[in-house]
Amino acid sequence: MLWTLMQNTKLFNLANRQLESTINPVLTPQMFGTTIRLTNDGSIDIKQIYKTAVIGGWFDSNKNKILGYQISRMYQPVKESLSPGESFDIDVTAHLIPIPTGQAKNLEAGMNIYGIVLVYRRSADMKPFVKFLPFIAESLPGKDVKTEKANFAMPLFPSYGSSEAGPSDKIYSRWVEDARAELLTLYKEKVAPVEIQ
Fold it and tell me: Which of these, 110, 92, 118, lies nearest to 182 by C-alpha position?
């Protein structure tokens, strides 16, 4: 009887793992000020969340192009495990890297844009997934320049209640879309081809 119960438990666990290996994890970002909150909105555990790269670029709003950029590669653990419904925060000011301004003539006509690249795994089969988190981070007037930290950030991804989803100004919306597209192109050309460790 005990042996049958143990075998049934093993079969149930195996079937459960097989089912979970067909479900993609859902890691949802939301930005509050200079904090990105990531929530496991799926039904399965997420494991081994690592930061693999940070991209920083200077976006010229007159030319609609990134004129200077810097990429920092790493393989740093961020969170070991995230159960369904759990969340954790990333302070974007701790992930900013120096950006060369490239061929920029007018530094007032642009913004610093960044992207954090996270790799995480589905617990059932440890298959890797990638989450790219693009955002703007700037220092507004009145900041203590010695701290070298941004005091304004805005997501370049959909985030409930953020200013990214706000103004209906067509010029502003176009600018945000162009900045996001430029950063995504840089990610695809310079970071995405790198094999996940």
Answer: 110
Please say whether the beta carbons of 138 and 111 come within 8 A: yes
For residues 86-90, average pLDDT: 96
Query: Residue 197: what pLDDT?
Result: 44
Buried b / exposed e across 62-85, counting CB within 10 Å, b at 16+? eeebbbbbebeeeeeebbeebeee
CA atoms within 13 A on the CB side of 112: 22
Q: Provide the pLDDT for residue 104.
A: 62
Beta bridge partners of 82: 46
User: Are 113 and 138 in contact, with CB atoms under 8 Å apart?
Assistant: no
HSE-up of residue 68 (Cα within 13 Å, Cβ side): 14
Are 89 and 82 in contact by the 8 Å Cβ rule? The answer is no
Q: Are 151 and 47 in contact (CB under 8 A)?
A: no
pLDDT tens figures, 116-134: 999 999 988 999 999 999 9
**Cα–Cα distance measured from residue 88 to residue 86, given in angstroms and rounded to the nearest whole number:** 7
Q: How many residues does the chain have?
A: 197
Please give the residue that has the higher pLDDT: either 148 or 184: 184
Say if pTM beats, i.e. exceeds, 0.85. no
